[in-house]
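Step 1: inspect the first sequence and its tokens.
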Amino acid sequence: MKPFLAALVIALPAFAQQPVIEISGANFRPMPLALPAPVSQDDGAKASVAEVDAALLFDLQACGLFQVLDRKSYLADSKEGVTASTITFQNWLNVGAETLVKTQLSRDGDTLRGDLRLFSVNAGREELKASESVSAKDARRLAHKLANAVYKHFTKETGPFESRISFVRKTAGGKDVYLADWDGKNASPVSTGNINVLPAVAPDRSVAFTSYKRGKPELFLGRVGQDPTPLVANGRMVAGVDFSPDGKRIAYSVSDGENAELYVANADGTGGQKLTDTKYFLNSSPSFSPDGKKLAFVSNRGGSPQIYLMNIDGSDVKRLTFQGNYNQTPAWSPRGDVIAFTARDERNAFDLFTIEVASGKVKRLTQDTKNNEEPSFSPNGRLILFSSTRAGTKSLYVMTFDGNNQVALPMDKGDFTTPDWGP
């Protein structure tokens, strides 16, 4: 993964089309951004203002690019307009804003429309206008679309805000698998009842997971609104699935007594091929490289759980981690150059780290916040989703790839684990 939130804001000459955030350098300063609440242009849109506002605010706060200014500090008149000629930019300069984002909502029948304008406060001019429409029942999706427009304006990359995540929620009856928006909202059940764990989101947004529905752990494939179907069930214990980036293959672990080996198969579970052969040792938690040619995985063949790499045909096995005595849950960045993983430290707490594939350089991402586990990268590799006990129960958090800006997802209280970030 290329350095991201080591960005410098470059001032542009007056004739430039838009500001640019250079994703380079070692000193990052989040861009101060003012984000007044959306205004409604008609009575029909008023009901959606709060929902759009909450989602848009969270997206821009959580992405790590911006310092979203406290609205209590605003000096501008609340009735100020949304075009450059109607804005008193000095009021925004005086509160430290470099960028100003204003949003209007309107509704026509069942269609909700959002018009977003982004202004350079220093230059006093409009730099971006984005318009999006959704079904009126999808107000949060409208916010995510608008947030993606802002994100792409500054980074020239597709934002992660319309992607989906899967996770496990512990209930009185067991553990259930859900698929939700990237921020954990609009969660829909994929599999409930009994014990369902370790979900993985496919490129088509189906979800593979391990389930004890029939006694031994087996792999199932589920979709929202449909009954899950068996994916890999061979009479032995099968767990820990990952999809190749093109969605054509899966990798998983098969346990038999004291031994666990890795397999690769077609995405429908057919054509399984054994990749490892290490009698009396455990191999688990496969994670595909972005090009689909390699796997990161966990093995205790060296005496303790460590991260290893191998080709997709099982050849050229190499140990990657040498620090620590308990490393697990590798997640390969979509950018290809780092792998995030969970490690147990000297105080028996679990924390998150990344390791550079080429150099083996390790970077610590979390510390002194109880247990932090199970990292999963956003589709663009800029953010990491993970589970943490820092608030008491296991909850889902997001941070930038380098460990900055750690914030909780705005979910209802519950016990949430093993998140996976899909497209």
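Step 2: inspect the second sequence and its tokens, then contrast the two.
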Amino acid sequence: MVTAADSSVAAHARYEPVIGLEVHVQLLTVTKIFCSCSTRFGDPPNTNVCPVCLGLPGALPVLNRKAVEFAVLAAMALNCRVNETSIFARKNYFYPDLPKGYQISQYDRPLAEHGWIDIDSEGGTKKIGITRLHLEEDAGKSLHEGFPDAVEKTAIDLNRSGVPLIEIVSEPDIASPGEAYEYLTRLKEIILYTGVSDCNMEEGSLRCDANVSVRPHGQKEFGTKTEVKNVNSFRFIREALAYEIERQIELIDSGGKVTQETRLYNANEGKTYGMRSKEQAHDYRYFPEPDLLPLVVDEKWSSQIRKLLPELPEARRERMVVDYGITEKDAQVLTSSKALADQFEEAAKSAKNPKRVANLVQSELIGRLKAKGLEIEQSPISMKGVAQSSDLVDVGAISGKMLKDLYDLCFQRGKDFPVVYDEEGRPQQSSDTSALEKIIDELIAANPRQVEQYRAGKKTVAGFFVGQVMKASKGQANPQVVNELVAKKLG
């Protein structure tokens, strides 16, 4: 996906951006990574806590097996090498929402390494490397609120403390804001297919930090990077990167130097602002977690997890093109979520014309959903309903106009196609030639000027008569039959 921002960056022929992304994904376990507290979102503050996630003295962590399985599954889907032995480490730093004063993470021996994702780029398919994928616990959450006395205060909610995360660190292979957007889109799609996370950015179950620098074109050494944190949508990440690249280039060109720091993005202003100087890795004083044994994922366990790996989006697209005769664009849309792809395949297996089903999803269903602000899971028309409507069109029982009207009624009433079709008396397209001939004869008699134009060689006038017949029949006439009869009568 190449944007205006990419073109603007490309215009600086002397510089090239270098972007790396760190993505934190919350795993869909029922309990936290080192204790049995619930991971449920939205509960009252500080209710899902215990001595372990509160960091009380003497409390010992116990590793959640399901969190490991989910992390390994994600690593396999991202083409990573899963290390048989990995080590948990303490990442030491002070922050109000980190009660222990350290975060249990992984450092020099992570769970998985050396993966990749293929993305669509301006020059075709591009491989973005994944440096590592490791397990860690989440910190709590600081809630900044203004009180009636106008003094802003901070409250701490530790419900999120200890929730299992995977951190996915990309190689600095991303060369534009558009590529970053595409990488995140593909990453989220793959993770959703595996079912290990819901990737809900609004609830914080997918968060991204972006590292960006610029360097003279052709230079091997990286420039000084800045980190953009706490951006809550892929679109804003793309915008923040575009702004930050321009800011760094302007700063260098004016004789200044880029400072390594953490910056925040203000979406309303479209600008980044300095937050704090960036801590180096050694500032965290990593050392092996003494209360946890090395994590061993042996061949037997790894093989069991690999059996849970579903067909992933790219492979599914390729297969669906072959199986159903649909276009690559159709397959791209229909596999945008696993739920949509599952529903389509279930419906397509029973439909007379799977390609028509695919066309209806794109031409009739998705547009109405977007207009209503609905996701595919919220559609009043199920995939089985789309398949039924496709079959009715395929056998000539209803026209395209009738289908559109019925779809509109489905969305107005919030009901599935089969229900609305029955409620409307199962309308049928008319192919009664005698009734249609009568309508056409009346129209020819009432419009002699158009008849003369047609017979003088203006054949497009036939469309006027076809339209009038469809109008007179309230859209229920068979268009193919109408076209044939109009041509015969005018001729």
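Step 3: confirm your contrast with the notes below.
Residues 234-253 form the longest helix (20 residues). Residues 232 and 358 are 32 Å apart (CA to CA).
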